[in-house]
Amino acid sequence: MLYHLFQYLDQLDVPGAGMFQYISFRSAMTVITSLIISLIFGRRIINFLVRQQIGEKIRELGLKGEKVKAGTPSMGGLIILASILIPTLLFANLNNIYIILMLITTIWLGLVGFVDDYIKIFKKNKSGLAGKFKIGGQVVLGLIVGLTLYMSEDVTVRQKVDKEEIADKTAVQVMNDYDRDRDNEKQFVKDVKSTITTIPFLKNNEFDYEYLVAFTGKHSEKLAWIAFVIVTILIVTAVSNGANLTDGLDGLATGTSAIIGATLGILAYVSGNMIYADYLNIMYIPYTGELVVYISAFIGATIGFMWYNSYPAQVFMGDTGSLALGGIIAVYAIIIRKELLIPILCGVFFVESISVLLQVSYFKYTRKKYGVGRRIFRMTPIHHHYQMKGYPEPKIVIRFMIVAILLAVITIVTLKIR
Asked: How many CA atoms lie within 13 A of 370 on its CB side?
């Protein structure tokens, strides 16, 4: 809202109003505002949760220190949501289709998580929201995101066009318009609807979802969007649940998400900047630079929440926060066409999810074969395995975050390693 206000003031030649046109300035203001909201108003929200006796009921898992956490207020994800939404509404361009999608993602999965927490805490139902409804909410969001990216005319990718292929020059932009003339030859580009995405480590690092339906012949171009929407649903569901599983130790999901968010911010900035995209030889996606403002709020919110969520936690985010964090990361990566980097960037989430899947599958298999179920890990998700081995909770969290930083660096390096 402030962005649009100062845009109007800039037209009236009000001194200083033009600063709001710069993404870097608005991103900085967003981080500051997000931190202020999470730090100052976060304490008030925690006090409110305590007064309402919204405390976590801890399952008896035999883990060291679990009884101390009993009664710690949950639903702290409300702090994260407020710290993301308010700064974004203030400083982002609300006409940007990508910002709209991120706001929808934040609110939608925040509501799904809130309902789950509400049932657990107020209805005294430990199971929370039925799994089919939780998955259903994630699937609906995936449909909304996938179909919006397909139908919106504002969602395009800028591709180079050979002179021989140019039929309508009015639809083509000239690279020289940006003062970049290579070898004195004009390079022509065009904004097109496309289902291409980025493949890490490969020289020709673009993958088109049309390849998945190439067997359909002339219908492959239209059916490619169906494949894209299906993949979008799977990614949103997987990453959202992965973040939810990771939220088992104080500060683990929050710290990991902050690291992932910072990495996505870098990727969005270079993808939305024509000069950097050309230099790094990656696809340029118009208008995605605005997403840096949103992810700045995300980073500020997660770091600010860690003030209260670090060991020993004064508040838990609950599903209100964890489902939203995972969904935000998934949708953000899909928008900037970096979703195939998720197994690397979100490696901590991925391993947490795989550990549960392997444990359950192996237990069922051995019970069927030998009559007695066997386990691969002492307990899953895998962070509990290390707790059972006697590692202190803060040590596990810090080491997982170090791994997350390593994976983030590898993700960024993939821009040039191919």
From this structure: 9
381 vs 244: CA distance, rounded Å: 10
189/168 Cα distance (integer angstroms):
12
AA identity, residue 289: G
d(CA 213, CA 198): 18
Candidates 101, 385, 125, 54; CA nearest to 248 is: 385
Report residue 122: phi and psi, to 5°.
-85, -35
Cα atoms found within 13 Å of the Cα of residue 327, Cβ hemisphere only: 33
Kindly report which listed range (39-43, 100-104, 181-185, 314-318) carries the lowest average pLDDT score: 181-185
Provide the token pair at 212.
């998945």
What is the SS3 assignment for 312? coil
Q: Which two tokens stand for residue 392?
A: 């202190």
What digits encode the pLDDT tens for the residues 38-53? Answer: 999 888 888 888 887 6
Query: Does residue 158 sit in helix, strand or coil?
Result: strand
Looking up tokens 């809202």, which residue turns up?
1
Nearest to 57 by CA among 103, 119, 1: 119
pLDDT at 205: 76
Q: What is the CA radius of gyration of the chain?
A: 23
Closest alpha carbon to 364 in 372, 352, 355: 372
End-to-end alpha carbon distance in the chain = 41
